[in-house]
Every structure is written in structure tokens, then in C-alpha cells.
Write a structure and sequence with these properties.
CATH class: Alpha Beta
Strand order of the largest sheet: 2-1-3
Structural class: alpha+beta
Order of helices and strands: EHEHE
Helix content: 25-40%
Number of domains: 1
CATH architecture: 2-Layer Sandwich
Number of strands: 3
Length: about 60
């Protein structure tokens, strides 16, 4: 059975550089869609996306919408 869940939107802003960070963190930032500092995105709060955000939370500014 499929449940219809309303996922919360999350606004994330890329605020700290990935220079001298582990390769996994660099790939996670790219997977979230960032290529430059101070970019912002609104993403759905799915478990996969929230896991990626948690992995690089120290590089992001996170806001609930």
C-alpha cells in the first residue's frame, strides 16, 4: 500500500567551501545541485535528501519552509 505523505520543503544554502573536504562530501554537495557558494535551493524533505543534508550540514544553512 502506498501512503500519500506530504514532505516538508527545506531551503538549503551552500555557505562553506568544499576545499580540503573528503571526496564523499564533495560528491554530496554536487548531488544536492550546488556548484557555487551562496547558492540556495528548495528541496523536498525526503529521507534520501535529508540524509544527504545531514552528511554535509556543517557546510549548509538549513531552513524549514
Amino acid at each position: 500500500m502506498e501512503e500519500n505523505r506530504i514532505m516538508a520543503k527545506v531551503k538549503i544554502t551552500y555557505v562553506k567551501s568544499i576545499i580540503d573536504r573528503p571526496e564523499g562530501q564533495k560528491r554530496t554537495i554536487k548531488a544536492l545541485g550546488f556548484s557555487k557558494l551562496n547558492q540556495s535551493r528548495e528541496v523536498e524533505g525526503t529521507p534520501a535528501v535529508l540524509g544527504m543534508i545531514n552528511k554535509v550540514a556543517h557546510l549548509l544553512k538549513i531552513e524549514n519552509i
